[in-house]
Design goal:
It is a peripheral membrane protein. This protein has about 270 residues and is mainly alpha-helical. About 70% of the residues lie in helices and about 0% in strands. The protein has 3 domains: about 90 residues; about 130 residues, Annexin V, domain 1; about 35 residues, no CATH class. It is globular, with a radius of gyration of 22 Å. The two termini are about 35 Å apart.
Amino acid sequence: MSEAGKTTMTGAERAAIFLMSLGEEDAAKVMRHLGLREVQQLGAAMSALENVTREQVNRVLGDFVTTVEEQTSFGIGNMEYIRTVMVKALGEDKAGSIIDRIFMGGNTRGLEQLKWLDAKTIVEMVRLEHPQIIAIVLAYLDPDQAAQVLRGLPERARHDVIMRVAALEGIQPAALKELDEVMERQFSGKERINSSTLGGAQSAANILNQLDSTSEASIMEQIQEIDPDLSESIQELMVVFGDLAEIDNRGVQLLLREIIPIRWCSRSRGPTTE
């Protein structure tokens, strides 16, 4: 965020400004409640901050104060209050995963510990488990970490696991019991975990988006052979605006001519040098 006049900030930038405004001690208390990935993302956002104006700081703090004044942290509405504050501070995408963990309760410490392990260690822990167990673990991890774990699995198992991630619609008690037993073997003394809404086609797409193109294509090809409808659902969710960054200027112009009515395009394009 090097532009002094920048008005649009990402959720990570807003959170970084807010935490740095609190001071070292209070910021440390907040970050103590975050997972490893969130700490890393916030740390990167903090290190990238430069030329932050007083107006930007006041805007971030003002938004937070306004949220607190408009909501209540007591009695009815606690969940909505937490959701609103988190989204205001961190943005919709980043806040979503944190909110889910809060509402899941405090009995997922075994799974949470996985987030602090490197991908190779996680692969060693789960590689001999049932693919459904591996799928639940991947669905719980952040997409980039899950992609690293998926890449470490045997190639023959990858498409099966990612299909199971896409097919997850909540976790059934039997699957939870299996997962709990895995966690008990790896981390002793952990409590039973509660049901959660992990997985789905979006989760599978997020993981695949983090893979290299060769691995992604191989997995999608195998899914296409087994379940074309599921393959199409995942593929649609993998189409992101970030892909446009790979298109040159002429390609973007051709794309616009295809998807925007010619009349509108002729008005907005203006004089051309071609």
